[in-house]
Design a protein that fits this description.
By secondary structure, the protein is of the alpha+beta class. The protein has 2 domains: 347 residues, no CATH class; 113 residues, no CATH class. The chain contains 19 helices and 9 strands. Helix 1 packs across helix 5, helix 5 packs across helix 6 and helix 6 packs antiparallel against helix 7. The radius of gyration is 24 Å and the shape is globular. The N terminus is likely disordered.
């Protein structure tokens, strides 16, 4: 991975020092955090998704004090038995191959009867989030001791910390010192904050690459981006359970049937409630799904299915349409992924054309399985979503590998309105023309979001005691 340009590095480092000096608790190494869209307490499914993504890292100490390193996170089990199969770990310098069981509590091993179940004889590691005060041992049916690793939310990367709350939409105390800064100084601060934000996203994506491989990490990131803000986790879960290694060898219809079957949408719609055109599409899916359904039985249980947020989702963003878009991406996987896997092949114009040109015989004219067909074709992935993917996936992957792309990133226009960006701009600039000036580019929005999350949402007493206004004079020096 190349270093970023010296001036960009200096700006990003300057912003991080500026931020961390004010709130030392924000340092990347100390504060507990979780993936976007999640908040404590975690469900067992969310905990498993975090582990599989490598969010806790891959190097640990066992309850016996031995070093544990995960070499291969294996496969997410879709049938009875341990959560993850065919894993490879190194314990005390010795390599072991087998299964991994992950539980919220150490005693779940016995509560769920794993110790008497032959399916768990190949377990080589028992991972859990909490344990009883007294020493607890994990044993298999043949009385073999299973090494244990206790996780902690403090192991999770601060780069993944979500902030879903809002600060009051009003002019902040920082507006006055900002008026004393030149446009160049304000632009420099926003660019530095945007650079810091991009580096955090890049670290999170490269951590996933270390855990799952580059191609699979790209697939997961693209799937998550299709989930928008409220359905990112279900899309990530699907991409983790249905990895490229399983999906790519299948025919397109079989891949699509798996996506809709494992998502739970195949069983959520009554055939008689659909229109004739939709019934033909559903028959095609069922022809392939029934052959694969038994292999996915574990994932169809109520507590294992993705939890979709449909109440606040616009029809055009409905996850059923987004699954259709993901199926289309898989159909054109080489064209979509090759520029992200090899930065030397990157062309923004060509890549945007590829994504915006995706087509699906059914989903290019339907919003949901129950909706009437649209009068004209609907883009599977529109221009604003493409720009969001560029900001959250593409450039965080490519910029560290091809640093000249930072200049290209700075030229991306801002196309999508964001409530947090709007609030941040109001707090910083009020009704000043700068409120419009510094929302013209995508990196302006990203910088405003970073400042909003680092200061507006972190000040415990609100705007009154926030140190940001007093610190701003340092950016003028």
């Amino acid at each position: 991975m190349e270093d970023l340009p010296a001036n960009a590095l200096a700006q990003s480092a300057r912003y991080q020092q500026f931020r961390d000096f004010v709130y030392p608790g924000l340092s990347e190494s100390s504060a507990p955090s979780i993936l976007p869209g999640l908040s404590p307490p975690l469900s067992e499914l969310e905990l498993q998704s975090l582990w599989f993504a490598g969010a806790f890292g891959r190097e640990f100490s066992s309850s016996d004090g031995e070093s544990v390193r995960v070499i291969d996170f294996g496969e997410w089990n879709n049938g009875p038995g341990p959560d993850f199969m065919n894993c490879v770990i190194e314990i005390g310098g010795q390599t072991r191959r087998g299964d991994v069981e992950l539980d919220p509590h150490a005693r779940d091993w016995e509560r769920h009867g794993h110790g008497a179940n032959a399916d768990y004889l190949r377990v080589i590691l028992h991972v859990y989030l909490s344990a009883p005060m007294e020493r607890y041992f994990t044993r298999t049916r043949d009385h073999q001791n299973v090494p244990q690793v206790e996780l902690s939310l403090s192991m999770l990367d601060q780069d993944a910390k979500p902030n879903l709350s809002f600060a009051a939409a009003r002019l902040g105390r920082c507006a006055q010192p900002l008026r004393d800064m030149t446009d160049g100084q304000v632009a420099s601060m926003l660019e530095a904050a945007a650079q810091h934000r991009l580096e955090r996203k890049s670290r999170r994506l490269h951590r996933s690459m270390m855990a799952q491989g580059k191609a699979q990490a790209v697939f997961q990131a693209l799937a998550q981006a299709l989930g928008y803000r409220r359905n990112q986790q279900p899309f990530l879960l699907l991409a983790q359970r249905l990895p490229l290694s399983r999906m790519k060898p299948l025919a397109a219809e079989a891949r699509e049937a798996l996506l809709f079957g494992v998502s739970g949408f195949m069983g959520s719609v009554r055939y008689e409630d659909t229109l004739p055109e939709t019934r033909g599409y559903l028959r095609q899916l069922w022809e392939h799904w029934w052959q694969q359904r038994d292999d996915c039985s574990r994932w169809l249980a109520e507590d294992q299915r993705p939890q979709w947020n449909l109440a606040t989702t616009r029809p055009g963003n409905h996850p059923q349409r987004r699954l259709g878009a993901l199926a289309a991406i898989l159909d054109k996987w080489e064209n979509v992924s090759s520029p992200l896997l090899d930065a030397s092949r990157w062309s923004q114009v060509a890549w945007k054309h590829t994504l915006q040109g995706l087509h699906h015989a059914f989903w290019s004219r339907h919003y949901t399985l129950l909706a009437e067909p649209a009068r004209r074709p609907i883009a599977l992935i529109g221009e604003t979503r493409v720009h969001e993917i560029l900001a959250n996936v593409v450039y965080p992957i490519l910029v560290p590998e091809r640093t000249r792309l930072w200049a290209e990133y700075l030229e991306l226009p801002a196309l999508l309105e964001n409530q947090k960006v709007t609030r941040a701009a109001l707090r910083l600039f009020g009704e000043s023309p700068r409120r419009t000036l510094f929302q013209r580019y995508l990196h302006h929005q990203q910088g405003l979001l970073q400042i909003y999350e680092d200061f507006c949402l972190e000040a415990a007493s609100g705007c009154e005691d926030c140190p940001f206004p007093e610190r701003l004079r340092e950016w003028q020096e």
